[in-house]
Amino acid sequence: GISTGNAAIAGAGAEVLAQQNFISVLPEAFKDTSFQVKQSGFALVGYCARHCFDYLVPSLRSQLLQLLLLL
What we know:
mainly alpha
């Protein structure tokens, strides 16, 4: 079902983050002039908040502050 699919996606996301932590490049995505790049950055934050929160926590404060400044 859907929950099984979500669990599989979550596991894959954690595996990718364990190999290459893309969270460190999110601040650059948020500063990009392309709407699509910014939207992808927000989507990744949302995904990590739901599925890989432990990887997001260390940088969450600085990223939230940066996002507030961009409003």
